[in-house]
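Dear colleagues,

As part of the handover before I leave the project, I'm documenting each prediction I ran so the next person doesn't have to rerun anything. This entry is a single chain, and its sequence is reproduced below.
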Amino acid sequence: MFERKILELKLASIEKLSSIYEAIAKLLFNYPDNPGMKLVNPISEERRSINALIRGLPMHPRGYPIVPTPKSMLEAFVGNFPHTVTVEKVFYEHKTDGYYNFYVQNYRNIFFLPDWISQWIQLNFDMSVDIRMLEYFRESVFLTVLFFMMILQLRIQLFWFLSINPYTRPWVYVISIVDWIFDVSAGFAPVFLGLDLSSAVITGLVGKLLDNLNHLVFTMPFLPSEGERGKLMINGQLKEVILFRYLPSLWYSHPIPEDLREYWYSERPEILKFMQKNYNKLDIEFLPTRVLKEMYEQKHKINMLDKMPTVEASLNHMSTNIIAESNNYITDISQFVNQKQFMFLHFIENSTDKWIF
């Protein structure tokens, strides 16, 4: 009987507590008329297929931290020196695709610049085909961040050597270089069992930046959105690739760089011929400016010559004028002689009349 009373008391307590919860939910959340959060639409079949494709792609090998593959005794002790391992771009020429085509193998972890950044770089720094300076810049950023990473690791190791005073030379220089990043990240990194994890978080972020520099693909002279997914047989295996071919859109919306057009005209006339033959209806200037200027001046001279009379017509006109003027001159002379002759005869007659008595 006692156990039954306890069970009844439990059920009554639960019912009372549930009625209190229902009253609160009805007062605050309009229970039971509130349907709650809307369900997310199930993933579409197209999205599902894209996710499956991405999951099936290989991973591009990371550049940092590097895989230890020593090739000498020094590398066995100090490790391999890190270097960029960028995504390889394979250029090719084709009679229909053109001369500036390339493809990159499609990886799960590669990424591209936004279109507006790629366009800004090409238009403002004249990096259309020759992007060596951009590659040098990436390499310099990689080495600079790597050097900062090494100093950061040295600073973190100084925490564990209590016998070293980090505020004495030369350690104070290390502190002045990297401690600012700890000051900025103070309060953002979590603390676990009294241990500040900011150094581990910063090291991970810097390492991720170094690694992502290897997965960044520059698509000049194309925009990243112009890439087309496809499949090619590479080393006997069918692999997913991203193709960039035909005419870059920037060469249609903006003038083609002057040095590139000069290079086509002077050293690669077959490229110039291909461009003029396949894209002549797009109103694009493929000739260099100096050639266009010479053509304009030559055309202007021809138009001026067309407007001028010919040499034969000029001679005929001159001979006609000379004959007409000479005839007029002869007529005037004959009239003058006749007039003088008439005056002379008249003078003779008057004189003879005076002599006759």
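Residues 301 and 307 are 10 Å apart (CA to CA). Residues 311-355 form the longest helix (45 residues).

All the best with the project,
I.
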